[in-house]
Amino acid sequence: MEAVAVVIPAHDESETIVACLRSVRASLRHCGVPPWHRRVVVVADDCTDATATLARAEGAHVVEVAYRNVGAVRRTGVELALELAHHRSEKDLWLSFTDADSVVPEHWIAAQLALARTADAVAGTVEVTDWSGRPAELAEHFARTYPVVRGDEHLHVHGANLGVRASAYLACGGFEALRLSEDQALVAELVRRGHCVSRPCDLPVVTSARSSPRAAGGFGDCLNRLTQPVMR
Question: Domain spanning 3-124+151-207 has what CATH number?
Answer without folding.
Answer: 3.90.550.10
